Amino acid sequence: MTNTRLIFSNLWRKGTILGECCEHPQYPSTDTQGDTPSQFWRTRHGTGSGNGLFVVTDSNKYINFDEGGAELTGTVATGSYNGNTLATAVAAAMNAAPGKALTYACVYSETNALFTISAGSNFTIRWNTGTNKAVDISGLCGFSDAADDTGALTYDGDYRRIHYPRAFITNDLLTAQTVNFLALLNHNISASATIKWRGADDDAFTVNLVEVTITHNPTNLFYFFGSSSTKRYVQIQVEDPTNPNSYIHIGPVVMGTYWEPARPAKSPYGKARPDDSIVDESYALVEFGQPRPRRKTWSLPFSGLSETDADTIILFFDEVGITHGFVLCLDYNSPNSYSYFVKNVELIEAVQDYHDSWSWALNIREKL
Prior knowledge:
The chain is mainly β. The chain has 5 helices and 24 strands. The mean pLDDT is 96.
């Protein structure tokens, strides 16, 4: 076991959420600043919503097709869309193509997260052989470019698209702050997703941009950066367009710098899962109960801590007390296996054994 690490000053909670891609109104992005894992930010989804954000740029705006003759080209207007409005824009682009004869339609299914392109007669979409293959809408709308779609009236997308290319939340930390740790709790991000932490000196993320690719872990993700970054503006990006839920959700976010005491928690230490349910008995010997979830608890003793550690313990108590959650990592070489979101059960003061050597105990419970 490596040295113990605690992340207790949650910079994400202290910042101001500047924006996000497309939140569901019942699951706001500010829920990521809370302490309750069952509350979370969720991207837009459901009937009539068009699901997430779809961004059309110069690198993905063309569709090459034909009606049995020469190549035709539709150009989708650049901008931000949801799935429904993007489908309308794709149909408009095809119907505006010079030389076309058929009338085209495009629809988006929020349930299946698929685009469907159709016409009244057979036509071909040149995903593979089109002049603009490198900058067409195939990736945007979830169509494979391995071959053209040909010989039919209707073509369904090959891949789900709940957004494209990504979902994101942006946070203004108000002043430049140092970050070397990120936790995403109670998330539904797919294993195939690309997760990035971004930091910059401006809210457009163009000045001194730093990007850190975060290793995926299911449900609860804990990640120590290879090096610290000091930035005012930060962003969490999730590229997960095929997510089977049709939305992204993320519970509490813990972001900051870790404190590593001079020595790790020592053995023996206690770990349990007590039952805090309330049981009462009437005069007739009938029992009435109020069950409560069972949570892990730890009692971790420390010794040989430095004067600096003793001062940090005071800051730690000031920051979280017994009300706020924090992250405990018992082995930073395997943070996803040995990290926990916890709260203090009580605040135990550090005791000086002799000069520059302190003892302390951490009494905590799992935060559900």
